[in-house]
Amino acid sequence: MDDQFDIGARLNAMRGAAGLSQRQLADRAGVPHAQISNVEKNKVSPSVSTLRKILSGLGVSMADFFEPERTLPTGPFFDADQLVDLTSKVAANAIGDGPGRMMFRQIGDARGHNLQILHEVYEPQADTGETLLQHASSEGGFVVEGELEVTVGDEVRVLKTGESYLFDSRIPHRFRNVSDSRTIVISACTPPYL
User: Fold this and answer.
1) Are 128 and 48 in contact (CB under 8 A)?
2) I need a labelling partner for 185 at 20 to 30 A (CA). Which of 10, 34, 107, 140 fits?
3) What is the per-residue pLDDT across 57-88, written as a single tens digit (0 to 9) for each?
4) Does domain 80-190 have CATH number 2.60.120.10?
5) Can you give the pTM of this predicted structure?
6) For the chain, which residues make up each domain, given as ranges?
């Protein structure tokens, strides 16, 4: 597919521009060396959590990774088509259009406001990955539709429509849709993470 985003080529180019070997990036990101090689060769499609961990070794956000040239709308109001698509390219490469697909869309310029607000969609079986997320932020969210399993440290809970979460993101965490229906969440994170 010609219109599919080439995660491996983009990572290879950014790593090269940073003057890092695969091993150096792996050490910085805290991932196995082979993982960098496999992603760059498109042998594996990384989960959201794995890709974010790798990009942290480059000091790059997912928004910059996927759309570095994009001019973000300044607001204060945003039409639905002005939200910044952060992860559908990861999901399309990793999983396709079926079960397990997820999409995160950002409202405006998260860095400029030091606040990331996301519209998140988790299709059945969507999962941020077995590698738990962990970053220096605080985050919270509200389940608008469906159910979302949230793991924070040793605590796991399935949140239903109308329920919410708020925690210190330095605690390892994970999000999964273990239901048979789509889940929609509105979340916020400061400082921005994705």
Assistant:
1) yes
2) 10
3) 888 877 778 766 667 778 899 999 888 887 75
4) yes
5) 0.73
6) 7-66, 80-190
